[in-house]
Here is the input.
Amino acid sequence: MNIGYYPGCALHGSSNDYEQSLRACLGALDVQLKEINDWICCGATAAHSLNHKLSLALPARNLALAERDGFKQVFAPCPLCSMQLLKVKKAVADEKVRRELSETVEADVRGDGQVLNLIQIFENVGLDRLKSSVRTPLESINAACYYGCLLTRPPDVVHFDDFEQPTSMEAVLAALGAKTVEWNYKTECCGAGMTMANEDAVLDLAHKILGNAAEHGANCVVVACPMCHVNLDMKQAAVERRYGKKLGMVVYYLSDLVGLALGLSSEQLGIGRHFVTKA
Amino acid sequence: MRNRAPGQETPASVRVRFPDHIHIVDCYQCGKCTAGCPVSQDMDLAPNQVIRLMQLGQSEKAVRSQAIWACLGCQTCSARCPKAVDCAGVMDALREAALVHDMASPARLLVVSFQEAFLENIRRNGRLNEMELIGRFKASVVFRTGRLSFLFKDAGLAPQLRKRKKLHLISEKARDRKIVERIFARCSNRSER
Here is the structure.
């Protein structure tokens, strides 16, 4: 597979444990990631909140760079980056918008390639192939699969899974021999990029998500988003302090669990770099 | 809401630019957006009330609300709307208008400052520089509020991030930062007042 890799800022910043996990796990599956040459930030929440034009132009530049590099597929492990790229794809279906955006970003934006999230990467590898590659079935895992907001929303942009009751992550975990729980907060928001700017909201939401996962018998939460991980893992100690209870809920990236099942070590996957680690 | 004597109303309508797919008139006030919103309890105007104000042409109240900055952009409202009114897109357009017209709610100073600092960071570096963002965000909050203690908020996290090799004193930048500046310049909304 010739996949253009768009890491986004988080994976080259404080979420670099996610990138370590991805590279180890996908390397073991022979999925080669080639970084898009001189990619720029997609503008994230700030751009779509403050400047609509910019929120299309920044990801449009990245899409154009990927197309220029000849990639037919772009993998964005951050669901916000991924959704922003998909928004551009949708917008440039209108030829007038496409020409304007191409002018703005000084590169031809075609929007004919595919944009993939992490779950889709595993689906493309093939769940049967994944299953037959498992060396260590994850029998002790009983996971709450947490999709958060933008893997499945807005549905008319991302066209991925069911936006109320998604099951694609559960299917990956089933292939690894892991169990999953039914719970209520699969697609609720964790507060995303508001970790510093609206800490109250983040702690409240993280508390509800982690609490609901525990109530339903999960022994870990699985995410496919850097911001979900920050709010549920890094901020978990702050949640415990505010609500006066011990949670101790381990939060894995989906690639961590796939990697472990493939026989990679916690160390190779960077799991020891999380804030909450198994007691 | 305070009642004003006739003739003393402030201008109730400021210009808000909506993307073409947003048809405010379609909303029939079922309230599903508000019911599913994870932060509606923190808002001075519920999402359906924001939409109603727009229908009534009273955009200024919506633009000045703190609700639009409490919105997390989670898209639940838009995904569930039975009339396909993109409520999250409405929130985006209102936030943009609030900045263009200098009407951003002082009650949400932290969110407004953070988003502004974030975009400025991208304009300068092409990619996010986390330490610079945190520094500038904190400095701007201290400057605007005089709360010096805010500088030290979450400072205890720094050594923990460092231990986990998650703290980068020097961040990478895009090589071609000129193009980033040109894109920002072409997308400027400052002249739209």
Notes: Residues 3-118 of chain A form a domain with the Glutathione S-transferase Yfyf (Class Pi); Chain A, domain 2 fold (CATH 1.20.1050.140).
